[in-house]
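Inputs:
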Amino acid sequence: MVEVRFHSLGGQGAVTLINMLAQAGDQIGRHVQAFPFFGAERRGAPVMCFLRMDDQPIALRSQIYRPDFLVVMSPSQVDAAIAEGTKESSVLLVNMKEEEARKSLAHLPFAAYAVDGTSIAIELGMEVEGLPVVNIAFLGAVSFVTELVPLEAITEVLRENTPPTRLEASMEAARRGFTSVVEIKKRKAPARRERKNAAS
Amino acid sequence: MRLVETGNHVAAWGARLARAEVVSAYPITPQTQVIEEISRFIDEGEMDCEYIPVESEHSAMAAMIGSAAMGVRSFSATSAHGLLYMHELLHWAAGIRLPMVMVNVNRALGPGWNIWCDHQDTIAARDTGWVQLYCASHQEILDTTIQAYRITEDPKVILPVMVCYDAIFLSHNYMQVEIPDQEVVDRFLPPFRSLWKLDLDYPLTHGSVIYPDDYEEVRYSMFQGLDNARGAIKAAAEEYRDVVGNYHGEMVETYRMEDAESAVVAMGSIASEAKVAVDRLRDAGYPCGLVRVRSYRPFPIEEIRSLLAPLRAVMVIDRGVSFGMEGPLFSEVKAVIYGRSDAKVYDIVTGLGGRDVTYELICENTEAALKGKLAQETRWPAVRLNEHHRVSKQGLEGYWKKEGV
C-alpha cells in the first residue's frame, strides 16, 4: 500500500486533486481511497487530504500519520505538514520555486522534490478570485514523483472531468507539472534495498 | 459500472436503484451530498421520483409518513441534529408500521458543535422501533440501502429501516463501488405493493388513541416485528448475494473468527480498521478475530452468543456512550452472553466527534486486555486529562481557586 498526505489551502483544489488521482488509480486497476480531513470549507484555511492505493481492497479508514509521500501545496505549510507525522522514508513534494526549495528544503531529513505549481497555474490563467488553483499542475507533479499513476491515466481523467473550454489548459498544466518537478534531495530507499541484498 | 464516489453519492445511487418514488429530506452536513445527488438524478431524468423539499427534518419525516401511508416507496436521508429533530416522528413511523428507508450519516451531537463522526445520534434513536443497519464500506452502503427495502417491505416486518454510515470516513471518502445494472436490482427488489393505503373511498383511522386495554398488544407486535426482521435481514443478504453478487454479512460480519480465542466487536468504519488490527494481533501471536455488528436493532443475540460465549476475552469498541452507564454496545454484548460464558469483556469508548481511531490504538488496548492489564469496564483510552477533567473533579469554584483563574 502507498499512502500520500496532502496539505493545502482551501481553494487550491486539493479535494478535486485527490478525487482525480483516485479515479486515475481506478483506471489502472488499483484499489483506491481518497478523503479530506473535513471542516475547512473556507477559502485560505488549511486543508488536509489523504490518498491510499493498494493492490488489495483497503480496510483502513483512519488518517495517514506516516505517509510515503507528503505533498505540500502551499509553501508556508511545510513545517505544519511535517508536524502532522512522517516516517524516515517519507518523500516531500512541495509547491516551491527551485531556488527557494534548495534553501529551505535541503536541510530537512527527507528526500524532497519541488514544483512551481503556482507559476504554472498563473501562466495558464487558473486563478479564482486571485488565488492560483494549483491542483491540476499537482496532478502531473504527483504522478511524476509518486509513480502511482501514469500521466496517460491522468490525461484520461482530465478528459472525463473537464469542461471543453478548459480542457487544453488543464492538460497543459498537468503536463508542465509532470515535466517541471525538480529533485532537491535524493531518496535513500534504493540504497537500503541494496544493503538488505548484501546481508542475505 | 464501477465508480469512484463518496459514500454519500453511493447512498443516492442506492435510493435510485431501489426506485424510491418519493424522497423527502432536509439538507444537513455531512448528509447534504446525498440529496444533492438525488436532486440531480431527478432533474436529469435519471430517476422517476418526487422530491419533497421541506423546511425541517420534522417535516421531512412527516412527509415520509404521508407518502409511505399512500403505499409509495419512500426514502430520506439525515444526520445528527436532523435525526434528533425528527425523533418524535421516528416513533410515529415505526408505531404505525410504515415501510420506509432512511440513511443516517453518523455524526456527533452538539454542543460543542461538531460535524464529524460518532454514533451518538443513532444510538439515541435506538429504541424508536426502527431497524438499524451499520455499514463499513461504500459497496455496503449501496447494497444495504437496496436490501433495506426488502426488509422494510417484508410483510412480517413492516417497520422502517435506518441505514447508518460514518461521517467523513465513509460519507466524504472517495472509494470504488460497483453499481449493478437496474435490471439486476429489479430482479432482487420487485415494485412495492402495499397491502393498504390511505384512501378517500375507503376511509379509515390510522394511528389514533389506543386505550390501556390494547396498547401493550400494539407494542408487542412491534417487538415481534423487530424480531422477525432478523430473518428478513438474513434472507435479504443471502438473496442479494445470489442475485446481485455482493455480500457483507447478515446480522454480523465475522473476520478470522474460525479459530479465535478472543475478538474485537465494533460497528461502522472502526470495524473495517479493526480488520487490520486483528491481522497485527495475529502476527503478534494472539488468535484474535472480529465481529462487526451490522444490525444493531434487531440486536444479533444468537450470533453474538454463539460467536463470543466460547472465547477467552472480548474487546468492545463503542463510538458512543450512555452517560451514567458505559458504552452501549458493551452493555449489550455482556447482556447476551450473561450466564453462558466465562469470557472477560472489555470496552473502550473512542472516536467521538470524529477523533481518529487507528488500528494501532485498537491493537494496543486489545493486547493490554489480553494480558490482563485492564479492568472489565468502559475506558476512554484516547482522552487527554485537561482542564475539562480538572473542572469535573474539583468543581468550577475549586478549579478557579486552585488554578488561580
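The longest helix of chain A spans residues 164-179. Flag for discussion at group meeting.
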